[in-house]
Design a protein that fits this description.
A hairpin with a 4-residue loop joins β1 (21-24) and β2 (29-31). By secondary structure, the chain is mostly helical. It has 7 helices and 2 strands; from the N terminus they run αββαααααα. The protein starts with 8 loop residues before the first helix and ends with a helix. It is 62% helix and 4% strand. The chain has a two-stranded antiparallel ribbon with strand order 1-2.
């Protein structure tokens, strides 16, 4: 069984600064009830767990993807994200970025945290580039389909013109 990543002191300090984190030690992270509810609501609405955690400052490069998967599975079993269970967000709270860490936006003197943030950004850029590639492919397929429909319509119009 694979072990979860052990967090170093700098990562622990960083994670403690996040609003989504209730408590943290070098090998365990406890999340707030509000974050659990918010996370599962978004998950059930189709958002990627990795994206939800990343937007809260909890990138898989820091906490490990396995930890994210386990949280989702555990919270799902516990019923979070279902009406009445877990914390729910008030209108607009999620959009206000309350789970985004202030320290995630600040520069620090520690090189390790900077490296982690750069790795997060590289990962996000790769993710966006893949999404862009998928969207371009879909756009191309829709353009081809539209062009085919135009040819069929033009063909029908010319047949109807000849009949008249």
């Amino acid at each position: 069984m694979a072990s979860v990543p052990v967090l170093n002191d700098e990562q622990v300090v960083y994670l403690r600064s996040l609003r989504a984190v209730k408590r943290v030690s070098c090998n365990r992270i406890r999340y707030t009830e509000e974050f659990k509810g918010h996370c599962m609501e978004r998950y059930f609405n189709g958002d990627s767990p990795a994206v939800i955690f990343r937007e809260a400052g909890l990138d898989s490069a820091i906490i490990g993807y396995k930890r994210i998967e386990r949280c989702i599975a555990r919270w799902r079993k516990e019923g979070y994200g279902i009406a009445g269970k877990g914390g729910t967000m008030t209108d607009g709270e999620a959009d206000d970025g309350i789970y985004k860490s202030e320290s995630a936006r600040k520069t620090t003197s520690g090189g390790d945290l900077r490296d982690t943030l750069i790795a997060q950004q590289v990962h996000r850029i790769d993710e966006l580039e893949r999404e862009l590639k998928r969207m371009r492919k879909r756009c191309h397929l829709l353009e081809v389909r539209l062009e085919e429909e135009r040819h069929v319509t033009v063909g029908r119009d010319s047949v109807e013109t000849r009949r008249a």
